[in-house]
Design brief:
This is Carbohydrate-binding module family 19 domain-containing protein. By secondary structure, the chain is α+β, with helices and mostly antiparallel strands. The protein is built from 1 helix and 5 strands, in the order H-E-E-E-E-E. The longest helix has 16 residues. About 10% of the residues are buried.
């Protein structure tokens, strides 16, 4: 029962944070930025949050590939 409740809460939060269909909207190895320091990496068809090191900043390229690059 406790596990099911946890799972429900997780999916509720996820559905609030993500747009419909976003879970399968990425391809393996794809990356994009979420703000200045967060880098989203595509793992098994859904986005997983990663972070750039403090001396780096996340930059989105034209082809939707996020990268951590040194701050200028």
């Amino acid at each position: 029962m406790y596990y099911n409740t946890n799972k429900f809460v997780y999916f509720s939060i996820y559905s609030i944070l993500c747009t419909p269909g976003e879970i399968r909207a990425c391809t393996r190895g794809q990356m994009k930025c979420d703000g200045e320091t967060q880098l989203l990496v595509c793992v098994k068809g859904h986005w997983v949050t990663s972070f750039c090191n403090p001396i780096y900043i996340c930059i989105d390229r034209e082809n939707e590939q996020g990268r951590c690059v040194p701050r200028r």
